[in-house]
Design goal:
- The radius of gyration is 19 Å and the shape is globular.
- By secondary structure, the protein is α+β, with helices and mostly antiparallel strands.
- Strand 11 and strand 12 form a beta hairpin.
Length: about 190
């Protein structure tokens, strides 16, 4: 059975005479209805005495199982991504719902942000001791994607530090997802993959 939707029957807010260009505000408003996980991407300390580069990212995703690849999309205007790119490696810290203040400290470049407990991974990038999970990566690729870069990382090490709901961003604010209790008890994935 197929479902056919007559042209122009969806309420899009644009006139029926032809599509108008989508504005950044429209895209942000509509895409805001889909939650994004919030992670902290860190890189190795560039020199002794300098703080490690770190950026809050809402575009992290698993890319491939074979080979093990993850990805995220830093803005082209980011001043942190070039520092991580130069190192050639990074660590993705999956933030928990209880880490909103940690997230805000890093997003605001708080001078005391690195007072949060952390250690270095084998490749030298910081991993937060209280993160839900982490992925230690080497930069595998970078592709231009509009006003962002699509960065892929080859996963060299990873782990889960503690259970709990992740920090998410939805409709312009932070929140969290409820865990699927049945999936958590059975150990099966809560998604079709």
């Amino acid at each position: 059975m197929s479902l056919s939707v007559p042209h122009g029957s969806l309420q899009s807010g644009t006139p029926q005479s032809g599509p108008a260009p989508v504005t950044a505000g429209q895209l942000r408003r509509v895409a805001g209805h889909y939650p994004t996980g919030v992670v902290l991407v860190t890189g190795p300390r560039p020199a002794p005495g300098e703080p490690p580069p770190a950026m809050v990212v809402g575009t992290f995703t698993s890319v491939s199982l074979h080979p093990a690849l993850v990805g995220f999309l830093p803005s082209k205007s980011s001043t942190t991504w070039p520092r991580i790119r130069a190192a050639g490696r990074f660590c993705v810290n999956v933030l928990g719902a209880d880490q909103e203040q940690v997230c805000r400290r890093f997003a605001a470049a708080d001078p005391h942000r690195w007072e949060v407990p952390h250690q270095e991974t084998a490749t030298g990038s910081p991993v937060l001791l209280d993160a839900l999970a982490w992925f230690d990566c080497e930069v595998a690729g970078e592709v231009e994607a509009g006003d962002h870069w699509f960065v892929t990382g080859a996963v060299r090490d990873l782990g889960v530090r503690r259970p709990g709901p992740p920090l998410v961003f939805l409709r312009g604010d932070y929140g969290h997802c409820a865990e699927d209790a049945g999936a958590a008890r059975s150990g099966r994935p809560a998604h079709p993959d």
